[in-house]
Amino acid sequence: MEQSTDRASAIAQATAHFDDGGFFDDLARRVAIRSTAQVRELHPELDRYLADEMAPTLSEMGFDIAIHPNPDRRGGPFLIASRVENNNLPTVLTYGHGDVVRGFEADWRDGRSPWTLERDGDRWYGRGTADNKGQHSINLAALSSILETRGRLGFNCKILLEMSEEVGSPGLAEFAEAHKEELAADLLIASDGPRLAPGRPTLFMGTRGALNFELSVDLREGAHHSGNWGGLISNAGTRLANAIACLVGERGEIKVPELRPEAIPPSVRAVLADCVVEGGADGPAVEPDWGEPGLSPAERVFAWNAFEVLAFKAGNPEKVANAIPPSATAWCQIRFTVDRDPATFLPAIRSHLDRHGFADVDVGQKHDGFMMRATRLLPDHPWVQWARRSLRATTGKEPTILPNLGGSLPNDVFAETLGLPTIWVPHSYAACSQHAPNEHALAPILREGLQIMTGLFWDLGEADMPEGSTP
User: Fold this and answer.
1) Domains in the chain: boundaries
2) What is this structure's pTM?
Protein backbone atom coordinates (compact mmCIF):
# COMPACT_ATOMS: atom_id res chain seq x y z
CA MET A 1 0.00 0.00 0.00
CA GLU A 2 1.78 3.08 -1.27
CA GLN A 3 1.60 6.15 0.96
CA SER A 4 0.50 9.19 -1.03
CA THR A 5 1.36 12.83 -0.34
CA ASP A 6 -2.26 13.52 0.53
CA ARG A 7 -2.32 10.59 2.91
CA ALA A 8 0.81 11.94 4.54
CA SER A 9 -0.80 15.38 4.75
CA ALA A 10 -3.85 13.97 6.52
CA ILE A 11 -1.65 12.17 9.02
CA ALA A 12 0.39 15.34 9.54
CA GLN A 13 -2.85 17.26 10.14
CA ALA A 14 -3.90 14.72 12.78
CA THR A 15 -0.47 14.78 14.40
CA ALA A 16 -0.53 18.59 14.60
CA HIS A 17 -3.95 18.44 16.28
CA PHE A 18 -2.38 16.23 18.95
CA ASP A 19 0.88 18.16 19.31
CA ASP A 20 -0.73 21.61 19.57
CA GLY A 21 -2.98 20.52 22.45
CA GLY A 22 -6.25 20.44 20.54
CA PHE A 23 -6.82 16.75 21.18
CA PHE A 24 -6.01 17.18 24.88
CA ASP A 25 -8.61 19.94 25.14
CA ASP A 26 -11.26 17.81 23.43
CA LEU A 27 -10.59 14.88 25.72
CA ALA A 28 -10.50 17.11 28.81
CA ARG A 29 -14.04 18.32 28.09
CA ARG A 30 -15.25 14.74 27.74
CA VAL A 31 -13.50 13.47 30.85
CA ALA A 32 -15.09 16.31 32.83
CA ILE A 33 -18.57 14.92 32.12
CA ARG A 34 -19.22 12.44 34.94
CA SER A 35 -21.00 9.98 32.71
CA THR A 36 -20.92 6.85 34.84
CA ALA A 37 -23.71 4.38 34.24
CA GLN A 38 -22.91 2.71 37.58
CA VAL A 39 -24.24 5.60 39.69
CA ARG A 40 -27.97 6.24 39.30
CA GLU A 41 -27.72 9.86 40.47
CA LEU A 42 -25.31 10.62 37.61
CA HIS A 43 -27.48 9.20 34.81
CA PRO A 44 -28.38 12.72 33.54
CA GLU A 45 -24.69 12.98 32.61
CA LEU A 46 -25.17 10.10 30.16
CA ASP A 47 -27.62 12.23 28.19
CA ARG A 48 -25.40 15.30 28.50
CA TYR A 49 -22.40 13.50 27.02
CA LEU A 50 -24.33 12.74 23.85
CA ALA A 51 -26.44 15.90 23.55
CA ASP A 52 -23.91 18.54 24.64
CA GLU A 53 -20.59 17.03 23.55
CA MET A 54 -20.95 14.39 20.86
CA ALA A 55 -23.88 15.80 18.86
CA PRO A 56 -22.28 19.25 18.22
CA THR A 57 -18.93 17.67 17.37
CA LEU A 58 -20.43 15.30 14.84
CA SER A 59 -22.85 17.84 13.37
CA GLU A 60 -19.91 20.11 12.62
CA MET A 61 -18.37 17.19 10.68
CA GLY A 62 -21.46 16.86 8.49
CA PHE A 63 -23.14 13.95 10.25
CA ASP A 64 -26.88 13.64 10.72
CA ILE A 65 -27.59 12.95 14.39
CA ALA A 66 -30.32 11.01 16.16
CA ILE A 67 -30.38 10.31 19.91
CA HIS A 68 -32.61 7.44 20.97
CA PRO A 69 -33.84 6.18 24.34
CA ASN A 70 -32.73 2.74 25.43
CA PRO A 71 -35.37 0.04 25.02
CA ASP A 72 -34.11 -1.38 28.33
CA ARG A 73 -34.99 0.94 31.22
CA ARG A 74 -31.71 0.02 32.97
CA GLY A 75 -29.60 1.55 30.21
CA GLY A 76 -28.64 4.98 28.95
CA PRO A 77 -29.36 6.50 25.53
CA PHE A 78 -27.86 5.70 22.13
CA LEU A 79 -26.61 8.05 19.43
CA ILE A 80 -26.55 7.19 15.74
CA ALA A 81 -24.63 9.56 13.48
CA SER A 82 -24.65 9.12 9.71
CA ARG A 83 -22.74 10.74 6.86
CA VAL A 84 -23.68 9.28 3.46
CA GLU A 85 -21.56 10.64 0.60
CA ASN A 86 -22.55 8.20 -2.14
CA ASN A 87 -24.63 5.04 -1.98
CA ASN A 88 -22.12 3.28 -4.23
CA LEU A 89 -19.29 3.79 -1.74
CA PRO A 90 -18.46 1.34 1.05
CA THR A 91 -19.96 2.08 4.44
CA VAL A 92 -18.07 1.75 7.71
CA LEU A 93 -19.69 1.57 11.13
CA THR A 94 -17.67 2.70 14.10
CA TYR A 95 -18.62 2.35 17.76
CA GLY A 96 -17.70 3.70 21.15
CA HIS A 97 -19.15 4.07 24.61
CA GLY A 98 -19.25 7.33 26.51
CA ASP A 99 -20.14 5.82 29.88
CA VAL A 100 -17.39 5.10 32.38
CA VAL A 101 -17.05 3.22 35.65
CA ARG A 102 -17.55 5.08 38.92
CA GLY A 103 -14.87 7.59 39.86
CA PHE A 104 -13.55 6.23 43.20
CA GLU A 105 -12.72 9.86 43.88
CA ALA A 106 -11.06 9.36 47.27
CA ASP A 107 -8.61 6.74 46.03
CA TRP A 108 -6.64 8.53 43.30
CA ARG A 109 -2.98 9.25 43.97
CA ASP A 110 -1.51 12.72 44.52
CA GLY A 111 -4.87 14.41 44.99
CA ARG A 112 -5.97 13.87 41.39
CA SER A 113 -9.62 14.05 40.41
CA PRO A 114 -10.97 11.39 38.04
CA TRP A 115 -12.94 14.14 36.29
CA THR A 116 -9.94 16.35 35.47
CA LEU A 117 -7.57 15.36 32.68
CA GLU A 118 -4.02 15.74 33.99
CA ARG A 119 -0.64 15.15 32.36
CA ASP A 120 2.20 13.48 34.23
CA GLY A 121 4.99 12.73 31.78
CA ASP A 122 3.60 10.38 29.15
CA ARG A 123 0.59 9.51 31.29
CA TRP A 124 -2.73 11.29 30.89
CA TYR A 125 -4.83 10.64 34.01
CA GLY A 126 -8.62 10.80 34.08
CA ARG A 127 -11.66 8.56 34.07
CA GLY A 128 -12.36 7.43 30.52
CA THR A 129 -8.94 8.26 29.09
CA ALA A 130 -8.43 4.58 28.28
CA ASP A 131 -11.96 3.23 28.46
CA ASN A 132 -13.45 4.50 26.22
CA LYS A 133 -13.57 8.30 25.77
CA GLY A 134 -9.93 8.54 24.74
CA GLN A 135 -10.30 5.73 22.22
CA HIS A 136 -13.40 6.93 20.37
CA SER A 137 -12.09 10.52 20.55
CA ILE A 138 -9.07 9.37 18.54
CA ASN A 139 -11.30 7.86 15.87
CA LEU A 140 -13.47 10.97 15.61
CA ALA A 141 -10.39 13.21 15.37
CA ALA A 142 -9.02 10.98 12.61
CA LEU A 143 -12.26 11.33 10.62
CA SER A 144 -12.06 15.09 11.10
CA SER A 145 -8.49 15.14 9.77
CA ILE A 146 -9.60 13.27 6.64
CA LEU A 147 -12.38 15.81 6.06
CA GLU A 148 -10.03 18.75 6.55
CA THR A 149 -7.45 17.32 4.14
CA ARG A 150 -9.59 15.74 1.43
CA GLY A 151 -12.83 17.66 1.89
CA ARG A 152 -14.74 14.40 2.01
CA LEU A 153 -14.31 10.98 3.60
CA GLY A 154 -14.45 8.98 0.38
CA PHE A 155 -16.76 6.46 2.07
CA ASN A 156 -20.00 6.49 4.00
CA CYS A 157 -19.70 6.50 7.78
CA LYS A 158 -22.09 5.58 10.58
CA ILE A 159 -21.29 5.99 14.26
CA LEU A 160 -22.99 4.25 17.17
CA LEU A 161 -22.31 5.54 20.67
CA GLU A 162 -23.83 3.82 23.70
CA MET A 163 -23.92 4.92 27.32
CA SER A 164 -24.28 1.63 29.25
CA GLU A 165 -21.34 -0.58 28.27
CA GLU A 166 -19.89 -0.56 31.78
CA VAL A 167 -23.08 -2.15 33.14
CA GLY A 168 -23.23 -4.89 30.52
CA SER A 169 -24.70 -3.01 27.53
CA PRO A 170 -28.38 -3.53 28.45
CA GLY A 171 -30.60 -2.90 25.45
CA LEU A 172 -27.77 -2.83 22.89
CA ALA A 173 -28.73 -6.04 21.09
CA GLU A 174 -32.42 -5.11 21.06
CA PHE A 175 -31.60 -1.60 19.82
CA ALA A 176 -29.35 -2.91 17.03
CA GLU A 177 -32.02 -5.36 15.92
CA ALA A 178 -34.62 -2.58 15.77
CA HIS A 179 -32.27 -0.21 13.90
CA LYS A 180 -30.64 -2.67 11.49
CA GLU A 181 -31.31 -0.54 8.44
CA GLU A 182 -29.86 2.62 10.00
CA LEU A 183 -26.77 0.69 11.14
CA ALA A 184 -26.27 -1.32 7.93
CA ALA A 185 -22.64 -1.24 6.81
CA ASP A 186 -19.92 -3.27 5.12
CA LEU A 187 -17.46 -3.30 8.00
CA LEU A 188 -17.04 -2.34 11.66
CA ILE A 189 -13.87 -0.46 12.60
CA ALA A 190 -13.80 0.44 16.29
CA SER A 191 -11.44 0.83 19.24
CA ASP A 192 -11.53 -0.57 22.76
CA GLY A 193 -9.35 -2.75 24.94
CA PRO A 194 -5.56 -2.81 25.18
CA ARG A 195 -2.70 -3.41 22.80
CA LEU A 196 -0.84 -6.63 23.48
CA ALA A 197 2.36 -4.60 23.98
CA PRO A 198 2.47 -0.80 24.40
CA GLY A 199 4.98 -0.13 21.63
CA ARG A 200 3.38 -2.26 18.92
CA PRO A 201 0.02 -1.62 17.23
CA THR A 202 -2.58 -4.35 17.62
CA LEU A 203 -5.53 -5.58 15.59
CA PHE A 204 -8.12 -7.92 17.07
CA MET A 205 -11.18 -9.24 15.31
CA GLY A 206 -13.46 -10.48 18.05
CA THR A 207 -13.58 -11.42 21.70
CA ARG A 208 -13.75 -14.43 23.92
CA GLY A 209 -17.15 -14.91 25.45
CA ALA A 210 -17.89 -15.13 29.15
CA LEU A 211 -20.42 -17.19 31.10
CA ASN A 212 -20.85 -16.63 34.84
CA PHE A 213 -22.55 -19.29 36.95
CA GLU A 214 -22.72 -20.69 40.47
CA LEU A 215 -21.86 -24.05 41.99
CA SER A 216 -23.46 -24.68 45.37
CA VAL A 217 -23.89 -27.36 48.01
CA ASP A 218 -26.69 -27.25 50.58
CA LEU A 219 -26.45 -30.28 52.83
CA ARG A 220 -28.57 -29.55 55.91
CA GLU A 221 -30.05 -26.92 58.19
CA GLY A 222 -27.52 -25.20 60.42
CA ALA A 223 -23.86 -25.74 61.29
CA HIS A 224 -22.72 -28.37 63.79
CA HIS A 225 -19.79 -28.39 66.23
CA SER A 226 -16.65 -29.71 64.56
CA GLY A 227 -15.50 -31.46 67.71
CA ASN A 228 -18.69 -33.44 68.15
CA TRP A 229 -19.45 -34.04 64.49
CA GLY A 230 -16.12 -33.80 62.67
CA GLY A 231 -15.56 -37.05 60.77
CA LEU A 232 -19.22 -38.02 61.09
CA ILE A 233 -21.02 -35.63 58.72
CA SER A 234 -20.07 -34.22 55.36
CA ASN A 235 -18.58 -30.75 55.04
CA ALA A 236 -20.13 -28.55 52.33
CA GLY A 237 -16.88 -26.69 51.76
CA THR A 238 -14.96 -29.93 51.29
CA ARG A 239 -17.59 -31.33 48.93
CA LEU A 240 -17.61 -28.20 46.80
CA ALA A 241 -13.81 -27.92 46.70
CA ASN A 242 -13.56 -31.51 45.44
CA ALA A 243 -16.32 -30.92 42.89
CA ILE A 244 -14.38 -27.98 41.50
CA ALA A 245 -11.23 -30.10 41.43
CA CYS A 246 -13.19 -32.59 39.34
CA LEU A 247 -13.83 -29.85 36.77
CA VAL A 248 -10.51 -28.01 36.67
CA GLY A 249 -7.06 -29.32 37.54
CA GLU A 250 -4.44 -28.11 39.96
CA ARG A 251 -2.69 -26.15 37.20
CA GLY A 252 -5.89 -24.62 35.81
CA GLU A 253 -6.40 -27.18 33.02
CA ILE A 254 -10.05 -27.91 32.14
CA LYS A 255 -11.01 -31.56 32.77
CA VAL A 256 -14.42 -31.50 31.05
CA PRO A 257 -13.87 -32.18 27.31
CA GLU A 258 -17.06 -30.35 26.31
CA LEU A 259 -15.69 -27.12 27.83
CA ARG A 260 -12.56 -27.12 25.67
CA PRO A 261 -12.14 -26.21 21.99
CA GLU A 262 -11.45 -29.25 19.85
CA ALA A 263 -8.58 -27.58 17.99
CA ILE A 264 -6.98 -24.23 17.18
CA PRO A 265 -7.46 -23.16 13.53
CA PRO A 266 -4.14 -23.06 11.61
CA SER A 267 -4.43 -19.34 10.74
CA VAL A 268 -5.04 -18.53 14.40
CA ARG A 269 -2.09 -20.61 15.55
CA ALA A 270 0.12 -18.94 12.92
CA VAL A 271 -0.53 -15.34 14.03
CA LEU A 272 -0.29 -16.21 17.71
CA ALA A 273 3.19 -17.64 17.18
CA ASP A 274 4.29 -14.00 16.82
CA CYS A 275 2.61 -12.85 20.04
CA VAL A 276 4.35 -12.47 23.39
CA VAL A 277 2.03 -12.03 26.37
CA GLU A 278 3.51 -9.92 29.17
CA GLY A 279 1.98 -8.48 32.31
CA GLY A 280 3.85 -5.18 32.00
CA ALA A 281 5.62 -3.28 34.76
CA ASP A 282 2.51 -3.09 36.94
CA GLY A 283 1.04 -6.49 36.08
CA PRO A 284 1.61 -10.04 37.32
CA ALA A 285 4.16 -12.33 35.72
CA VAL A 286 2.78 -14.81 33.20
CA GLU A 287 3.09 -18.34 34.62
CA PRO A 288 4.36 -20.60 31.81
CA ASP A 289 3.03 -23.84 33.34
CA TRP A 290 -0.48 -22.62 34.22
CA GLY A 291 -3.43 -23.63 32.04
CA GLU A 292 -3.76 -26.12 29.20
CA PRO A 293 -0.52 -28.12 28.74
CA GLY A 294 1.22 -27.84 25.40
CA LEU A 295 -0.08 -24.37 24.55
CA SER A 296 1.82 -21.11 24.47
CA PRO A 297 0.61 -18.27 26.74
CA ALA A 298 -0.83 -16.50 23.68
CA GLU A 299 -2.74 -19.61 22.66
CA ARG A 300 -4.09 -20.10 26.18
CA VAL A 301 -5.54 -16.58 26.46
CA PHE A 302 -6.59 -15.93 22.85
CA ALA A 303 -7.42 -19.37 21.40
CA TRP A 304 -8.48 -21.56 24.34
CA ASN A 305 -11.06 -21.64 27.11
CA ALA A 306 -10.47 -20.94 30.80
CA PHE A 307 -12.40 -22.03 33.89
CA GLU A 308 -12.05 -19.52 36.72
CA VAL A 309 -13.30 -19.53 40.33
CA LEU A 310 -14.09 -15.89 41.05
CA ALA A 311 -15.21 -16.31 44.67
CA PHE A 312 -15.79 -19.13 47.18
CA LYS A 313 -17.69 -19.06 50.44
CA ALA A 314 -18.30 -21.65 53.15
CA GLY A 315 -19.26 -20.84 56.72
CA ASN A 316 -18.70 -17.29 57.95
CA PRO A 317 -15.25 -15.99 56.93
CA GLU A 318 -15.75 -12.78 58.96
CA LYS A 319 -16.45 -14.68 62.20
CA VAL A 320 -14.97 -18.15 61.91
CA ALA A 321 -16.55 -20.70 64.25
CA ASN A 322 -15.58 -24.28 65.14
CA ALA A 323 -18.51 -25.58 63.15
CA ILE A 324 -18.97 -27.67 60.02
CA PRO A 325 -20.59 -25.51 57.35
CA PRO A 326 -23.86 -26.88 55.98
CA SER A 327 -23.62 -24.99 52.69
CA ALA A 328 -21.04 -23.55 50.31
CA THR A 329 -21.12 -21.55 47.09
CA ALA A 330 -18.56 -20.88 44.38
CA TRP A 331 -19.05 -18.16 41.77
CA CYS A 332 -17.39 -19.34 38.58
CA GLN A 333 -16.75 -18.20 35.04
CA ILE A 334 -15.87 -19.76 31.71
CA ARG A 335 -14.04 -17.58 29.17
CA PHE A 336 -14.57 -19.26 25.81
CA THR A 337 -13.83 -18.95 22.11
CA VAL A 338 -16.22 -19.37 19.17
CA ASP A 339 -15.37 -23.08 18.92
CA ARG A 340 -17.99 -24.12 21.51
CA ASP A 341 -21.66 -23.25 22.05
CA PRO A 342 -22.02 -21.80 25.57
CA ALA A 343 -25.54 -23.27 25.82
CA THR A 344 -23.85 -26.67 26.21
CA PHE A 345 -21.57 -25.70 29.11
CA LEU A 346 -23.85 -26.05 32.13
CA PRO A 347 -25.43 -29.33 30.95
CA ALA A 348 -21.92 -30.69 30.36
CA ILE A 349 -20.84 -29.67 33.87
CA ARG A 350 -23.99 -31.25 35.32
CA SER A 351 -23.31 -34.55 33.54
CA HIS A 352 -19.64 -34.55 34.49
CA LEU A 353 -20.39 -33.96 38.17
CA ASP A 354 -23.05 -36.68 38.19
CA ARG A 355 -20.65 -39.20 36.63
CA HIS A 356 -18.09 -38.42 39.34
CA GLY A 357 -20.44 -38.72 42.30
CA PHE A 358 -21.31 -35.06 42.90
CA ALA A 359 -25.07 -35.14 42.45
CA ASP A 360 -25.37 -33.00 45.59
CA VAL A 361 -23.67 -30.05 43.83
CA ASP A 362 -26.15 -27.68 42.19
CA VAL A 363 -25.18 -25.98 38.91
CA GLY A 364 -27.07 -22.82 38.03
CA GLN A 365 -27.13 -19.35 36.59
CA LYS A 366 -29.33 -16.51 37.78
CA HIS A 367 -31.82 -15.17 35.25
CA ASP A 368 -29.76 -11.97 35.01
CA GLY A 369 -26.41 -13.77 35.05
CA PHE A 370 -23.55 -12.30 33.02
CA MET A 371 -23.04 -13.82 29.57
CA MET A 372 -21.33 -12.46 26.48
CA ARG A 373 -21.01 -14.43 23.27
CA ALA A 374 -17.69 -15.16 21.60
CA THR A 375 -16.80 -13.82 18.15
CA ARG A 376 -13.85 -14.17 15.81
CA LEU A 377 -12.85 -13.06 12.31
CA LEU A 378 -10.06 -15.30 11.06
CA PRO A 379 -6.69 -13.56 10.51
CA ASP A 380 -6.56 -14.47 6.81
CA HIS A 381 -9.81 -12.59 6.06
CA PRO A 382 -9.31 -9.92 3.31
CA TRP A 383 -10.37 -7.05 5.57
CA VAL A 384 -7.84 -8.11 8.20
CA GLN A 385 -5.01 -8.21 5.70
CA TRP A 386 -6.11 -4.82 4.30
CA ALA A 387 -6.00 -3.28 7.80
CA ARG A 388 -2.64 -4.92 8.48
CA ARG A 389 -1.14 -3.31 5.37
CA SER A 390 -2.55 0.08 6.33
CA LEU A 391 -1.11 0.00 9.86
CA ARG A 392 2.24 -1.13 8.56
CA ALA A 393 2.28 1.70 5.99
CA THR A 394 1.58 4.28 8.70
CA THR A 395 3.91 3.08 11.44
CA GLY A 396 6.57 1.00 9.71
CA LYS A 397 5.77 -1.70 12.29
CA GLU A 398 4.24 -5.12 11.77
CA PRO A 399 1.07 -5.06 13.89
CA THR A 400 0.19 -7.77 16.35
CA ILE A 401 -2.84 -9.65 15.04
CA LEU A 402 -5.12 -11.34 17.54
CA PRO A 403 -8.02 -13.47 16.30
CA ASN A 404 -9.95 -12.26 19.32
CA LEU A 405 -9.38 -10.40 22.55
CA GLY A 406 -8.98 -12.47 25.70
CA GLY A 407 -11.67 -10.40 27.43
CA SER A 408 -15.22 -9.65 26.35
CA LEU A 409 -16.97 -6.86 24.45
CA PRO A 410 -20.47 -6.76 22.94
CA ASN A 411 -18.95 -7.60 19.56
CA ASP A 412 -21.59 -10.25 18.90
CA VAL A 413 -24.05 -7.40 18.27
CA PHE A 414 -21.94 -6.28 15.32
CA ALA A 415 -20.74 -9.67 14.09
CA GLU A 416 -24.01 -11.58 14.48
CA THR A 417 -26.96 -9.18 14.78
CA LEU A 418 -25.63 -6.81 12.10
CA GLY A 419 -23.57 -9.45 10.25
CA LEU A 420 -20.40 -7.36 9.88
CA PRO A 421 -16.71 -8.24 9.62
CA THR A 422 -15.26 -6.64 12.76
CA ILE A 423 -11.84 -4.99 13.13
CA TRP A 424 -10.78 -3.44 16.44
CA VAL A 425 -7.73 -1.18 16.76
CA PRO A 426 -7.05 -0.56 20.48
CA HIS A 427 -5.40 2.63 21.74
CA SER A 428 -4.69 1.56 25.32
CA TYR A 429 -2.39 -0.87 27.13
CA ALA A 430 -2.86 -3.55 29.76
CA ALA A 431 -1.61 -1.57 32.79
CA CYS A 432 -3.87 1.47 32.25
CA SER A 433 -5.96 0.91 35.45
CA GLN A 434 -9.08 1.27 33.35
CA HIS A 435 -11.62 0.16 36.00
CA ALA A 436 -9.63 1.32 39.00
CA PRO A 437 -8.37 4.55 40.53
CA ASN A 438 -5.62 6.26 38.52
CA GLU A 439 -6.94 5.31 35.09
CA HIS A 440 -4.64 6.75 32.45
CA ALA A 441 -3.69 6.64 28.79
CA LEU A 442 -0.18 6.81 27.38
CA ALA A 443 0.44 9.85 25.18
CA PRO A 444 2.68 7.96 22.69
CA ILE A 445 -0.08 5.39 22.10
CA LEU A 446 -2.72 8.10 21.70
CA ARG A 447 -0.56 10.01 19.24
CA GLU A 448 0.33 6.94 17.20
CA GLY A 449 -3.28 5.79 17.39
CA LEU A 450 -4.43 9.05 15.84
CA GLN A 451 -1.94 8.58 13.03
CA ILE A 452 -2.99 4.96 12.54
CA MET A 453 -6.70 5.72 12.35
CA THR A 454 -6.17 8.64 9.99
CA GLY A 455 -4.22 6.37 7.66
CA LEU A 456 -6.80 3.58 7.99
CA PHE A 457 -9.74 5.86 7.19
CA TRP A 458 -7.80 7.49 4.36
CA ASP A 459 -7.17 4.08 2.81
CA LEU A 460 -10.85 3.21 3.14
CA GLY A 461 -11.61 6.16 0.87
CA GLU A 462 -9.10 5.03 -1.76
CA ALA A 463 -9.55 2.47 -4.52
CA ASP A 464 -7.16 -0.01 -2.87
CA MET A 465 -9.85 -2.20 -1.26
CA PRO A 466 -9.63 -5.89 -0.41
CA GLU A 467 -10.87 -8.08 -3.22
CA GLY A 468 -14.46 -9.19 -2.75
CA SER A 469 -15.10 -6.71 0.05
CA THR A 470 -16.59 -3.74 -1.84
CA PRO A 471 -20.36 -3.46 -2.16
Assistant:
1) 5-207+375-460, 209-281+295-372
2) 0.89
